[in-house]
Amino acid sequence: MGKREEANGEVQRDNEKVTTKKEEGKGNKEEHPLPLMALNHVSRLCRNVKESIDFYTKVLGFVLIERPHAFEFDGAWLFNYGVGIHLLQAKDEDRLPDPNHLDPMDNHISFQCENMEELEQKLKDLNIKYKKRTVKDEENRTAIDQLFFNDPDGFMIEICNCENLKLFPAGSLGKIKLPVDRHNPPVEMENGGNDEK
User: What is the pLDDT of residue 180?
Assistant: First the structure.
């Protein structure tokens, strides 16, 4: 099990506390750490569930998974990369954002990417409108490339190589807890045979 010491904070991995040398002997003890493990899913209202399924599976590589039969409303569950996307059929389309509005400073979800050029080419091939920018951090000599685009319902998505940026705790409050494989739900790797062709 790997341990890492960070500049001015604690890092927790697999429920094991690692204390920096600066904090040794100070008696810092988190009284009631939250039992959170990782982001489970993001829900998105949609105008047309099938169109949204096509987008998230073809553009972002999500996999359509079975959802509990107890739900009595139109929707779909998708999963990949350790996170789920739950699509819900909108009853009131006025609640959805403008699909033509694309502002990187607005609400969005972000996915890390290991090959930005390949993903940008995919967006071009699929004729998906996007904005591209690079954020440079001269002090740390790093750059983050970003692609912003909307899903069919106007919810913005960012693709970035944000792993280029090292994270530093900004203060003494809070402890960084890194996810481990156990945060994923049990996944059946074989196809359930319910594919639509």
Answer: 67
